[in-house]
Design brief:
Layout (H helix, E strand, L loop, with lengths): L1 E3 L5 E3 L3 E4 L30 H5 L6 E7 L4 E6 L15 H7 L5 E8 L4 H10 L6 E8 L6 H5 L6 H10 L1 E4 L20 E7 L2 E7 L13 H7 L4 E6 L20 E8 L4 E9 L14 E2 L2 H19 L3 H26 L10 E2 L12 H27 L31 E7 L2 E6 L4 E4 L7 E4 L5 E7 L4 E6 L6 E6 H11 L12 E2 L7 E4 L8 E6 L2 E7 L9 H6 L9 E8 L6 E5 L9 E6 L2 E6 L5 E6 L7 E9 L2 E8 L2 E11 L2 E4 L6 E4 L12
Parallel strand pairs: 7-10, 7-11, 11-12
Antiparallel strand pairs: 1-2, 3-13, 4-5, 4-6, 6-15, 8-9, 9-10, 12-13, 13-14, 16-17, 17-18, 18-19, 20-21, 21-22, 22-23, 24-25, 25-26, 26-27, 28-29, 29-30, 30-31, 32-33, 33-34, 34-35, 34-36
C-alpha cells in the first residue's frame, strides 16, 4: 500500500495503510487549533450484551430448536418484545421466529426449564468479544530501527513516563483484583507494576515494554514479545523529532498485531503527534485524525487515542481472520450445548425431570390449578435467583458489559466498606458522602467531614446544629439537612461550594445562628423529609409536619434572569430563594418513612410512598389521592425504609419493615392512577437481624 504523509512524501508501509491526517493542509499550523472531530466509541449496538442486559436475572424464557438445515438455535424472550401484537392472537415462539424469517424447523422450539441454562447462554454471548481491552506499549529510543533494540530498553525516558501517567494509573500487579489482561497477579512473573485505566465502562490494561520482565541474557526479550506481540493494538512511543528515522510496522515481527499507533512528543510546544498504521484487512474506523495530527491539550489527546485504540480493536475483530475463528468457536459451543440437551428432547413433556417443555411464549404464568401455579412461581423465583447471582458474579470479576468500575485504584466489591476511622469517639446520627469524604452528623459534636487522608476530622457545623437527616447533592451544589426536633425542627439548605470555601479560606465553623438565612421557614416542626433520587431538571422535597405533607421544588435556573452583579460575584451564599412551596397534602396519620417515586412523564403522575400504622400507601402528588400499596400482617411493625428503584423506565419500591424487605413493582402509571398489581418481578427477602436503616448506592 502506498500513502502520502502531511508533507506529501510517499510512504511505503507494506501491507499496512497509513493514517497521518489529511494532506491538503500545510505544516504551517498553530498547534492546538485543529478542527474537532466526533470522538466516540463506534458501533456499540454490535457489542451490546443483550442477554446479560435484558434477560439475565429477570423473568424470561429460553428455547432450543433446529432449523431446516439442522442447525441448532437458541431463543431468549420476555414479555417486553417489539413485535406486532393482537389481543386475540396468542404470541407464540413460532410467530416470533417467523418475524425473524425462521419459518421452517427440523425440530420445533422447546422451552428449557433448567435455570442453569443461563450460565451456558452467558458463555455463548461472551464469545462476541471482550468488554475489556489489553494494549501493548513499546518504547523506542531515537534511532532504534529493530524490534530487538526497542524491546531491550530497560527503562523509559522522562517523556515516556509522563505519557504513561497520561494513559492511566500505575498499579501493583500482585493481588490485583481487576481486569489483568493476561498478566500474572500472584507471583510477579510478568513484572511488578503495570498501567491500568477505565474508559467509558471499559477496563484497559497496558502491556508496557519497560515494565515487563527484562533479561540481559536474552537479546530478543521473548517474555516481553510474548505479551506485546500478541496484542491486537500496540502503541509505539518513539523519541526524536520528525526528521529522525520513523517507525514502520515492518520493524516488528508479529503476525498478530494489526494496528500500531505511533506517538511522538514535542517538548518545544508540549504537544503529541499521532500516526496510525492499520493492517489492510482491518475495516476503516474512526475517529479520523485531524490535520495536522498534533495535540497540545493532553486530556483531549488521551480521549482521542483511547477511543481510536478501542475502535481499532473492535474493527480488527471483524476481519476474516478473527471473525471466522470466533464464529467457529461459537458454532462449536452451540452444538456442544445442544448435544447435552438432546436426551431431554425424548422425555415425556411436563415430567418433573424434564428440562424441556412446550409452551406459548406469552404464557409467563400459565392458567393452571393453584398448586401447579405455586410450583411455577417457585420455579421462576429460583430461575431469577440463579440469574441474579450469575449477573453479580460477572460484575464483580470485571467482565460485565458496562463495567461498574469507576477508578482502577479504588476498585472494591459492591459490599466492601471503606474505613475512615477505626475508633470514632462520637455516636453517628446520619451521614452522606461528599466526594471522597464523608459528612457525618454526631449526637453531641455537630457535623464533621471525615477524610481517610486526613488524621483528624474537620468541623463543619458546631454542636448547636443538631442534624437529624441530611443529603449531599453534589451535581446541584446543595446540602439539605433537617435539624433540631419538635416545634424547632426545620429544613436547611446550603451551597456546598460556599461551605467548602468557608472551610478552606477561613476555617469557618458554622453555628445554628449562622444558618438563619438557610432555613426553609414553612418547614417548621418537620419531623421527616424525603427527596427524589432520580431528579433531572427539578428537585422535589416533601417535608412531613405531623400528618401534613409539604411539597417543595427548586425553581429551574434561568440564565436570562441573572443580573450583572450575580454574573460577576456569583450566586448568593444561601439558596433559599431558589425553592418554592407547591402544595400541602393531609394524611390520616403522621408518616414514619417516605419515598418519592418519579412517574414516567413527570406530569401529574409523580407519587409519594408513605408508611404509617400497618401499611404502605402511595399518594398522588398532584391530587392527594391515596392508594393502598402493601399491608403488613404483623402485630407490631417497625418501619425501616421505602426505597424507590427504577429499571427500563419502570418504577419499583423496596418496602422494608421488621426483618423483611419486600420489592413491589409499581407498573407504568395509567394517568393519575398507579397500576398496583401482583407481578412476577415482586419478591421479598429477610434479614437475620432487624436493620436500623437501609440505603442504596447511586
Amino acid at each position: 500500500l502506498i500513502s502520502s504523509d502531511a508533507d506529501g512524501a510517499i510512504q511505503r508501509a507494506g501491507r499496512f495503510r497509513v493514517e497521518n491526517g489529511s494532506s491538503d493542509e500545510t505544516t504551517d499550523y498553530t498547534p492546538g487549533t485543529w478542527r474537532r472531530t466526533d470522538v466516540h466509541l463506534e458501533n456499540p449496538e454490535y457489542h451490546t450484551r443483550w442477554f446479560f442486559k435484558y434477560f439475565l436475572g429477570k423473568v424470561h424464557q429460553n428455547y432450543v430448536g433446529t432449523d431446516a438445515e439442522k442447525n441448532p438455535f437458541y431463543l431468549s424472550g420476555s414479555q417486553k418484545i417489539c413485535l406486532p401484537y393482537s389481543p386475540t392472537k396468542t404470541l407464540s415462539v413460532k410467530s416470533i421466529l417467523s418475524a425473524m424469517n425462521l419459518d421452517r424447523f427440523e425440530k420445533a422450539p422447546r422451552e428449557i426449564l433448567n435455570p442453569d441454562i443461563q450460565k451456558d447462554l452467558l458463555v455463548l454471548e461472551e464469545q462476541e468479544g471482550s468488554v475489556n481491552f489489553k494494549f501493548g506499549v513499546l518504547y523506542a529510543k531515537d534511532g532504534q530501527l529493530t524490534d530487538d533494540e526497542m524491546f531491550s530498553n530497560e527503562t523509559g525516558s522522562e517523556n515516556f513516563n509522563k505519557f504513561l501517567n497520561l494513559l492511566g494509573d500505575t498499579i501493583i500487579l500482585q493481588g490485583w483484583a481487576g481486569y489483568r489482561g493476561g498478566l500474572d497477579t500472584k507471583n510477579d512473573t510478568t513484572g511488578i507494576n503495570s498501567i491500568y485505566t477505565v474508559y467509558q465502562g471499559h477496563e484497559l490494561m497496558f502491556h508496557v515494554s519497560t515494565m515487563l520482565p527484562y533479561s540481559k541474557d536474552n537479546k530478543q526479550q521473548v517474555e516481553r514479545k510474548r505479551h506485546i506481540g500478541n496484542d491486537i493494538v500496540t502503541i509505539v512511543f518513539q523519541e526524536g523529532d520528525d526528521a529522525s528515522p520513523s517507525f514502520k510496522p515492518s520493524m516488528i515481527r508479529s503476525h498478530f498485531t494489526h494496528i500500531f499507533a505511533l506517538v511522538r512528543y514535542n517538548s518545544q510546544n508540549d504537544s503529541y503527534r499521532l500516526k496510525i498504521f492499520s493492517e489492510e484487512s482491518v475495516p476503516l474506523f474512526g475517529p479520523p485524525l485531524p490535520s495536522p495530527p498534533v495535540f497540545t491539550d493532553h486530556q483531549e489527546f488521551r480521549d482521542f487515542l483511547l477511543v481510536k485504540l478501542i475502535n481499532g480493536e473492535k474493527a480488527t475483530l471483524e476481519t476474516p481472520t478473527f471473525a471466522q475463528k470466533r464464529q467457529r468457536t461459537l458454532d462449536m459451543l452451540i452444538r456442544s450445548l445442544y448435544q447435552d440437551l438432546i436426551p431431554d428432547l425424548h422425555k415425556v413433556p411436563f415430567s418433573p425431570q424434564n428440562m424441556l417443555n412446550r409452551r406459548s411464549f406469552s404464557d409467563v404464568l400459565p392458567e393452571s390449578p393453584k398448586s401447579a401455579r405455586k410450583k411455577e412461581e417457585a420455579r421462576q423465583a429460583e430461575f431469577v435467583r440463579i440469574g441474579q447471582a450469575l449477573k453479580l458474579k460477572t460484575i464483580v470479576r470485571g467482565d460485565a458489559p458496562t463495567s461498574l468500575v469507576t477508578t482502577g485504584l479504588c476498585r472494591k466489591e459492591p459490599w466492601e466498606s471503606q474505613s475512615f476511622y477505626n475508633s470514632f469517639p462520637y455516636e453517628i446520627v446520619c451521614s452522606d458522602s461528599w466526594g471522597q469524604s464523608l459528612l457525618v452528623a454526631t449526637d453531641t459534636m455537630g457535623v464533621m467531614l471525615l477524610d481517610d487522608t486526613q488524621p483528624l476530622p474537620v468541623q463543619v457545623f458546631d454542636k448547636t446544629m443538631v442534624v437529624k437527616q441530611m443529603h449531599v447533592l453534589e451535581p446541584q451544589d446543595l446540602l439539605i439537612a433537617r435539624a433540631d426536633k419538635g416545634k424547632d425542627a426545620r429544613i436547611y439548605v446550603y451551597r456546598l461550594s460556599s461551605l467548602k470555601r468557608g472551610l478552606e479560606e477561613r476555617q469557618l465553623i458554622r453555628s445554628k445562628c449562622d444558618s438563619r438565612e438557610n432555613k426553609l421557614e414553612k418547614t417548621k416542626g418537620c419531623h421527616l423529609y424525603s427527596i427524589n433520587t432520580h431528579h433531572g431538571a427539578e428537585l422535589r422535597i416533601v417535608a412531613a409536619i405531623r400528618n401534613k405533607l409539604l411539597l417543595i421544588t427548586r425553581k429551574p435556573l434561568r440564565p436570562d434572569c441573572l443580573c450583572a452583579v450575580t454574573m460577576v460575584t456569583g450566586p448568593p451564599d444561601s439558596p433559599v430563594e431558589e425553592f418554592q412551596y407547591i402544595r400541602e397534602i393531609c394524611l390520616c396519620d403522621p408518616p414514619v418513612v417516605m419515598a418519592l417515586v418519579d412517574g414516567p412523564t413527570g406530569e401529574n403522575d409523580n407519587m409519594i410512598c408513605v408508611a404509617y400504622k400497618h401499611q404502605f400507601d402511595l399518594i398522588n402528588e398532584s391530587t392527594g389521592e391515596a392508594y393502598r400499596l402493601h399491608h403488613v400482617d404483623a402485630s407490631r411493625v417497625n418501619f425501616v425504609a421505602a426505597i424507590d428503584v427504577y429499571e427500563d423506565g419502570e418504577a419499583g419500591l423496596l418496602l422494608c419493615y421488621n426483618y423483611i424487605c419486600y420489592y413491589k413493582k409499581v407498573c407504568p402509571f395509567n394517568g393519575v392512577t398507579p397500576m398496583i398489581q401482583s407481578n412476577t418481578s415482586d419478591f421479598h427477602f429477610s434479614w437475620n437481624q432487624m436493620p436500623n436503616s437501609i440505603g442504596t448506592q447511586l
